[in-house]
Amino acid sequence: MGRTQGQSRMAGNTLSIYFGTETGNSRWVAEAIANMSAARSVPATVQDLVNISAEQLSRDSDPALVIISTWNRGKPPFFARRFYADIEAGKTAMNTLRFAVIALGDEHYEHFCACGRNLDMLLEKLGGKRWMPRIELGTDFRSNLAQYEQQLWKHFDKLS
Ligand SMILES: Cc1cc2nc3c(=O)[nH]c(=O)nc-3n(C[C@H](O)[C@H](O)[C@H](O)COP(=O)(O)O)c2cc1C
What we know:
The protein is α/β, with parallel strands linked by helices and 160 residues long. The chain has helices at 25-39, 54-58, 81-88, 114-125, 141-144, 149-158; strands spanning 15-20, 44-48, 64-69, 98-104, 129-130, 135-137. The chain has a single domain (15-154), classed as Flavodoxin domain (Rossmann fold, 3-Layer(aba) Sandwich), CATH 3.40.50.
């Protein structure tokens, strides 16, 4: 965790990946994207939201990619409860943050990906600048992630 990959690239942004998980699926997606980054020589860091406050996120000068699942009708995953409550409190300005959200869920639930949808909305409301439209992944997240890879790099490569 917190490692930097592909440091050989001399210029460009580091992708700052965060995940909030309960059973490890969001962590799997975070690590898969870190591996894609390494393959493109894009430096990436991976951090668990269990260790992150809203304030820490707000200070990230790299483009942030927040991957978070939904539990129990829109609740955050267990290990991101403190982070999410911190964001929901609405006291942390995100004016300098560039963010994107990948929401994980299960399409059989009524509140599909609700936590990621809310987080995406809250980060914008707090002043953050969205660098990529939200991606929503259901139960086939492992196989479906690949179809979003091009989109991710298209948006990421546009960042200055
Ligand atoms: C008890 C339970 C409740 C869930 N509630 C929702 C829900 O309300 N909405 C949703 O989209 N997915 C829901 N899910 C699906 C999880 O979000 C999904 O399994 C996700 O991949 C878990 O990711 P994680 O391991 O990173 O927490 C629920 C799963 C379980 C087991």
